[in-house]
Amino acid sequence: MDVKLTWLDTGYCRQLELFSRQGGKLKMIRFHALAGLIEHPEHGLWLFDTGYSPRFFEATSAFPYSLYSKITPVVTQAEQSVRAQLARHGIAADAVQGILLSHFHADHIGGLRDFPRARLYCFESAYLHVKGKTGLAAVREAYLPDLMPDDFEERATFVDRMAPTALPQKYAPYTTGYDLFADGSLLAVDLPGHAKGQFGLFLRDRDHGELFLCADAAWSSEAYRGNLLPHPLARLIMSDRQAYRDELHRLHLLSRQCADVRIMPTHCGEVWETTREGGDFSWRS
Ligand SMILES: [Zn+2]
């Protein structure tokens, strides 16, 4: 079943390009934090991650959480939060049925508290890894506990407790995933390495064909096309460096073997630039 995906830009952090991939230049680039709005014909509105929101600044106001904003200086405005962007288009926060959390880094869960009624889908392994972490232990995981709703567990559905399903053969080397609505529309795939329990999402957009939202398994389209690892310093923040290397290679293989599927990393400037035109809420027409 086809869905409609619209990317929302929630702000960015500045980083050296050289930090993000081999062959990158010694220049500052913007790492946009995109959130995906998914319209499902039967299940309504869903989000893939929530990007930044102004809560990021409150959550990083005191030490040691302030270290996070020093390492990745963030630029975002109140009107860029997902909730504010939806409101401008007449969509109430409560219309969002659920949020798919690729992982728990702060640039993906920043808007979570703005959707107090949404179901929250994540891997249990990802949640258990950050659960209860505070202070430096949290910062080390790029996790800010103040961004989490108090009733997270009551609203959570753990994707990795579902029965796995075989993926279409064309998605090789990805072979198994989780069919979230049991209709083939959203297929979640384990993407370890960057963060424990990270997952990506295969879907078919009604206008743009097959897409693979790969979260942070690659930071840019150049990286998966060229199988270009980040700078060794950046690799230090990966939860499992060998798994990250393996995942980037799998993405690279998919891009070579299956031209039908467009791979979309969350922080890729090219994804944002090429989808913003005409992508802005065109699903409503
Ligand atoms: Zn990220």
TrEMBL record:
<dbReference type="GO" id="GO:0016787">
    <property type="term" value="F:hydrolase activity"/>
</dbReference>
<dbReference type="GO" id="GO:0046872">
    <property type="term" value="F:metal ion binding"/>
</dbReference>
<keyword id="KW-0378">Hydrolase</keyword>
<dbReference type="InterPro" id="IPR001279">
    <property type="entry name" value="Metallo-B-lactamas"/>
</dbReference>
<feature type="domain" description="Metallo-beta-lactamase">
    <location>
        <begin position="32"/>
        <end position="267"/>
    </location>
</feature>
<keyword id="KW-0479">Metal-binding</keyword>
<protein>
    <submittedName>
        <fullName>MBL fold metallo-hydrolase</fullName>
    </submittedName>
</protein>
<dbReference type="InterPro" id="IPR036866">
    <property type="entry name" value="RibonucZ/Hydroxyglut_hydro"/>
</dbReference>
<dbReference type="InterPro" id="IPR051013">
    <property type="entry name" value="MBL_superfamily_lactonases"/>
</dbReference>
<comment type="similarity">
    <text>Belongs to the metallo-beta-lactamase superfamily.</text>
</comment>
<dbReference type="Pfam" id="PF00753">
    <property type="entry name" value="Lactamase_B"/>
</dbReference>
<comment type="function">
    <text>Counteracts the endogenous Pycsar antiviral defense system. Phosphodiesterase that enables metal-dependent hydrolysis of host cyclic nucleotide Pycsar defense signals such as cCMP and cUMP.</text>
</comment>
<keyword id="KW-0862">Zinc</keyword>
